[in-house]
């Protein structure tokens, strides 16, 4: 029996802990955030054989949103497998997300168990699976979990396997991570910097050129396989457009050193709040942060050999989110989390206090963290179980979608704060006017031949200039539909 031996007992505990979120209540609907709608639209296009770029979303060149014309195909492909059998079923997609979280938790459990022992491995599972924003992402249809899983597999195979013999597997994992999230391209740069740093330590070795050739061959092989997978899926099998050019344009128009400094402060606050304050009292969170930082610093000191790849991955990822001209909370910072936990546990194993009193204090702090995680989960599950009003699935909003589908031409262009949501539900082209002046909104509407404007309760929050524009141009607009949630206007 599995439970008769010690090893099997700890594996069973880990399986139970990682699988418990499968029993958490699933949100029946999702909120107005539009990334999930874009992913689902692409998944529906895959199922129905419709081109990926035929998604109705129009990028506003005057003030373009943070989105290319289509996302990498990897996550929509996962969603399409569920869409084929369950259709537009939000709980089914969240179940898929939770299963990926289960795989992620077990992947890191086996890594922790082999390197740090069973007890710390279980503690690591609590940090990875039950941390506030990890659980929050469970009820969101986003690519973060799937990317985290394949990023983790790439890093772990690179560090702990014979990478020269597994170069093809590394290439496959790299390619899959890349098609899950465009940021996956960073992994090869991290590996390059790591290999370069190790090479610089052997510059006086007579075999340095042979060593350099070996490393170049390895990295080139990984990159070629990953690039082939990316091009095959994002260009040959499915055309997702030129996302690279889109992000180059973002940096050209929006990048600034001041924004980088703001981002640095912003993400520092987000990480501190998310993991040390969110479900704890402030004083306890501060003590936890101090303990975590102490073990984290010691963990970095104890990294040896290829484990140091983690340092370069963290540096590249942190530089990327700090340099990116926009902020998105813990979503952008989430990929660093399992790596940080690994380093912290490494420090905890090698630097655990020998003084009896310090041992007790450390155990109390970590025990308190686990307890607060459990309380936080209960609070979170209650929120999910309660009714959700901030959603495009309300009855009144659904009536608005139905009106648009039945009473507007297929090529009618809409101006709205949520173009990807509208395009998903109505299959009509739409764009976001962003925060522009009335004159600029007018010029954009003429340029895009937009004939309809849609307003809802969230418009003022996300595009505060749109409602004033409507009031200023009311004489040139007809109200064609109105209810408690939705107002649809048409240009006369």
Automatic annotation (TrEMBL):
The chain crosses the membrane at residues 9-29, 93-113, 119-137, 144-161, 167-194, 215-233, 271-297, 309-326, 332-348, 360-377. The keyword Zinc-finger does not apply. The lineage of its organism: Bacteria, Pseudomonadati, Bacteroidota, Flavobacteriia, Flavobacteriales. It comes from Polaribacter aquimarinus. The keyword Magnesium does not apply. This is Glycosyltransferase RgtA/B/C/D-like domain-containing protein. Keywords: Membrane, Transmembrane, Transmembrane helix. It comes from the Bacteria.
């Amino acid at each position: 029996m599995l439970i008769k031996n010690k090893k099997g007992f700890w594996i069973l505990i880990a399986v139970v802990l990682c699988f418990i979120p499968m029993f958490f209540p699933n949100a029946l609907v999702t909120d107005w955030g539009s990334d999930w709608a874009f992913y689902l639209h692409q998944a529906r296009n895959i199922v129905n054989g419709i081109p990926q770029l035929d998604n109705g979303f129009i990028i506003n060149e005057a003030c373009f949103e943070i989105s290319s014309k289509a996302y990498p195909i990897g996550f929509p492909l996962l969603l399409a497998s569920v869409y084929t059998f369950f259709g537009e079923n939000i709980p089914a997609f969240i179940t898929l997300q939770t299963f990926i979280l289960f795989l992620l938790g077990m992947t890191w459990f086996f890594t922790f168990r082999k390197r740090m022992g069973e007890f710390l491995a279980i503690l690591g599972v609590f940090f990875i699976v039950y941390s506030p924003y990890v659980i929050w992402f469970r009820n969101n249809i986003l690519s973060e979990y799937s990317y985290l899983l394949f990023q983790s597999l790439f890093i772990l195979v690179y560090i702990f396997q014979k990478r020269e013999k597994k170069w093809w597997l590394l290439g496959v994992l790299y390619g899959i991570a890349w098609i899950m999230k465009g940021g996956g391209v960073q992994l090869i740069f991290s590996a390059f910097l790591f290999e370069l740093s190790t090479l610089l330590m052997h510059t006086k070795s007579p075999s340095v050129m042979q060593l350099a050739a070996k490393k170049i061959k390895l990295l080139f092989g990984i990159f070629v396989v990953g690039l082939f997978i990316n091009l095959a899926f994002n260009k040959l099998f499915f055309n997702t457009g030129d996302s690279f050019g889109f992000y180059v344009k973002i940096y050209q128009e929006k990048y600034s050193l001041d924004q980088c400094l703001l981002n640095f402060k912003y993400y520092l606050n987000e990480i501190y709040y998310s993991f040390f304050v969110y479900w704890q009292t402030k004083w306890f969170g501060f003590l936890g942060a101090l303990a975590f930082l102490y073990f984290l610093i010691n963990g970095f000191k104890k990294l040896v050999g290829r484990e140091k790849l983690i340092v370069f991955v963290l540096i590249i990822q942190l530089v990327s989110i700090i340099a990116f001209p926009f902020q998105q909370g813990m979503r952008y910072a989430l990929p660093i989390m399992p790596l940080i936990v690994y380093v912290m546990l490494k420090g905890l194993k090698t630097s655990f206090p020998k003084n009896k009193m310090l041992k007790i204090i450390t155990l109390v702090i970590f025990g308190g963290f686990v307890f607060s995680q459990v309380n936080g989960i209960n609070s979170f599950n209650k929120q999910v179980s309660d009714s959700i009003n901030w959603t495009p699935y309300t009855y009144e909003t659904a009536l608005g979608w139905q009106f648009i589908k039945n009473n507007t031409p297929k090529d009618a262009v809409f101006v709205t704060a949520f173009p990807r949501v509208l395009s998903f539900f109505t299959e009509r082209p739409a764009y976001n006017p962003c925060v522009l002046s009335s004159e600029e909104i007018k010029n954009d509407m003429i340029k895009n031949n937009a004939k309809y404007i849609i307003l809802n309760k969230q418009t003022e929050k996300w595009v505060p200039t749109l409602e004033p524009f409507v009031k200023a141009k009311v004489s040139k607009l007809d109200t064609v539909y109105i209810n408690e949630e939705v107002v649809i206007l048409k240009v006369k």
